[in-house]
Amino acid sequence: DIFILGDNCTVENCRLKVADGNDTAFINCVYGDGVVNPTIRNNFLNSSGAGGCGVQLRNTFNSTITNNTIYGGKWSGGTGTGATAADILFYSTVASSRHVISGNYCLSNNSQGIISDALGRDSELIVTGNICVTLDPATCIEGGAWSEVATGGIRRHGILTGYNDPADNTSTVIVSNNICKNTRWTGIYNQATGAVARKIIISNNICIDNGYESGNTLAGGIYISKSGNEQVIGNTVFNFKGSAASNVGGITVNGATASAIKTIIKDNYIIDSLAHGVAISTNATGVVVDNNTITGSVFSDIYWSANAGNSALGGHTICRNDITRVNTDEASINLISQSSTNLTKVYENTIKGFNKATVADTNAALRTTALSSAVNFCDNFVENFYYGVYNSNFFTGTRITNARFDRNTFKDCEKGMAIGATTNVPTVPVFDNVFENVTTKIDGRGGFIAGQVAIKLDDNVQVFRTAAPTTGSWLAGDRAYNTASVV
């Protein structure tokens, strides 16, 4: 290491370069372990070629790392060469707290730009105003172009807010107002798998061109390994490069366990994702996707694929999002709910499709599989899809009261709702929907039509017929209004 810090040390206005040949793993420009009040500011830090760091602190208190430029480092990707190393790294094995990382340029081709909490021991962290862009080290010289390396280089994450969660983890982290660009996996990555989750706010960041490594399941402009207490608010994700086959998106939420604590995905802009817009997968439970703007996703705008056989999953809230599809006929909100029985609510969204001509179950504003009775779709505006709603399962039973498809407006769709059944017995009343320029209001998608356009009369319904219905399940007090009545 070039400088090894003691208590109350400041490294300021220096240009530090790891010596040529002195580039084994974890060689650092500035290193501190077990110290108090270190400050590293306004330096040019040229790290090593085998996974070394510009700044590495361990077991430290009250640190400030600000306005440094870290560059020139690169990582081979091989084992034993500092895969955890970053331009700025916090790697504490015991309690460590009160750290501010601000205004830095993290420009190497290292494994990460910033790791703010590698082992779940660093707490009360603020990571703000940093620019993490992966550059080609060969160009980062005097008179050089300082240009981006192709397809993310070797850098996996722009900012990693945590990697391990010990049982006593009490980490609190704010990640705000950063730019993370040109990475193989994620712009911002938060792993939380322990029994006690870190409390984290990820807000007002811009993530661009992340996820170049196709097929990686740990990808996203922003990636959350959910266990609760996460808020992802007001971020912008451009041009996410990942693969939809990996169930990832501009914002990816993955759950190791079915946590009852809500994760909030709110007020974000997700533009031109090559995979999904928001992807929720495995055991993620109780995710709130609220008031996001999602445009230009190649695959689904909001996608949920749960682990099979776990009925404790679901319980999501998908509301007030503004969604516009501009290039493909994929299902906009695609809920592959497996065996989940927790109610997922989808309401007050504006969903505009690419075209209504393509005949496909994926050309739908809402597509559900497995238990559609665990999904309520109400008060949405849907325009320009072949199907407004497509239920890929058939309803069974008699009178279905827990599946709600009410008060929606369907405009310029070929079919409003595909609500089918295996027999002519099930009845699924749908209330107070508006169908504007819709060819077929309710479709059975090859089976019997279970959906019934109705008006709610307390516990009864009123449907519209030219004769009394001969199929379906009805209650005493239900009404059939004769639409062909004469004086």
How do the strands and helices of this protein lay out in sequence?
Blueprint: E1 3-4, E2 10-12, E3 15-17, E4 28-33, E5 39-41, E6 44-46, E7 53-58, E8 61-66, E9 69-71, E10 86-90, E11 96-102, E12 105-106, E13 112-115, E14 122-128, E15 131-133, E16 157-160, E17 172-176, E18 179-181, E19 186-190, E20 199-203, E21 206-208, E22 220-226, E23 230-233, E24 236-238, E25 249-255, E26 263-266, E27 269-271, E28 276-282, E29 287-290, E30 293-295, E31 302-306, E32 317-319, E33 322-324, E34 333-336, E35 344-347, E36 350-352, E37 364-369, E38 375-378, E39 381-383, E40 387-391, E41 409-411, E42 415-418, E43 420-421, E44 428-431, E45 434-436, E46 440-443, E47 448-449, E48 451-457, E49 460-465, E50 479-482
Parallel strand pairs: 1-4, 2-5, 3-6, 4-7, 5-8, 6-9, 7-10, 8-11, 9-12, 10-13, 11-14, 12-15, 13-16, 14-17, 15-18, 16-19, 17-20, 18-21, 19-22, 20-23, 21-24, 22-25, 23-26, 24-27, 25-28, 26-29, 27-30, 28-31, 29-32, 30-33, 31-34, 32-35, 33-36, 34-37, 35-38, 36-39, 37-40, 39-41, 40-42, 41-45, ...
Antiparallel strand pairs: 43-47, 48-49
Detailed description of the structure:
With 487 residues, the protein is an all-beta fold. It has a 16-stranded parallel beta sheet with strand order 1-4-7-10-13-16-19-22-25-28-31-34-37-40-42-46, with no helix packed on it. Strands 3-6-9-12-15-18-21-24-27-30-33-36-39-41-45 form a 15-stranded parallel beta sheet, with no helix packed on it. A 13-stranded parallel beta sheet has the order 2-5-8-11-14-17-20-23-26-29-32-35-38, with no helix packed on it.
